Amino acid sequence: MTDGLNGRLQGALFTECASWIWDQLQEEGIFIQGELIEFILTNERKLGIQGESSEVIIAGIVDLTGEDATKMLDSAMIGAVLSWEDEFLALANIPRMES
Predict the structure, then answer these.
(1) CA 45, 88, 38, 46: dihedral to nearest 10 degrees?
(2) DSSP letter assigned to residue 66
(3) Can you give the pTM of this predicted structure?
(4) Confidence at 2, pLDDT banded by 50, 70, 90
(5) Which of 12, 21, 25, 93 has its CA 20 to 30 A from that of 40?
(6) So what's the pLDDT on residue 3?
(7) 71: helix, coil or strand?
């Protein structure tokens, strides 16, 4: 497992991605804190599991943080975040494995 933080989606671009995902979710009527979106994206990268299923991401976050992530995350929420992340990466012309 790599730390996943050396990819192309970092710094201002990472912040823009998280903000854009938040905007898209708001338009869909899904209300989630921006910090939670950043938490999902950051930990997905720390675990090196970009592109995995939401269940794998929840399990990884639980293993990484030692917290019960299911209290604040559910697979539908993560699935929505990941779907919009894929869209952002496509628009930015960044392959997921380089993110």
Answers:
(1) 0
(2) -
(3) 0.82
(4) very low
(5) 93
(6) 40
(7) helix
Distance in angstroms (rounded) separating the CA atoms of residues 25 and 31: 7
Report helix, strand or coil for 86.
helix
Q: Is residue 43 within 8 Å of residue 65, measured between CB atoms?
A: yes
Element (H, E) at 62: helix 54-65
N-term to C-term CA, the chain:
15
Residue from 57, 10, 18, 16 nearest 34 by CA: 18
Q: How many residues does the chain have?
A: 99
Selection from 47, 35, 43, 32 nearest residue 80 by Cα: 32
What tokens appear for 49 in the block?
Answer: 């599991």
Q: Is the dihedral angle over the CA atoms 72, 76, 19, 39 positive or is it negative? A: positive
CA distances from 7 to 29, 30, 32, 48 (A): 30, 28, 25, 10
